[in-house]
Hints:
The protein has three helices and no strands. By secondary structure, the chain is mostly helical.
Amino acid sequence: MTGRRLTGNLRLAALAAACIALVAFVAYLDGLTSALIAFSIFYVVPIVIAAWYGNRTMGVAIAIASALGGSPRTSGRSRCGRCMP
Length: 85
């Protein structure tokens, strides 16, 4: 019995879906942690996977999704509650 591989557009669609799910998971974990823990480095992982195994367009699209996924939490908050504004 031989295994079948995904090819062409189906492979790219599956890769995009997996990377979007990974971005959503990282954004969820980022929302659970406090503002003192920098979680932004983990957004790079799905971008690298999409650009390496997909193409440049997919890498840029996942990068934009990562930027949008991380922006609501960090846009108006300070990293330190006792820091001066």
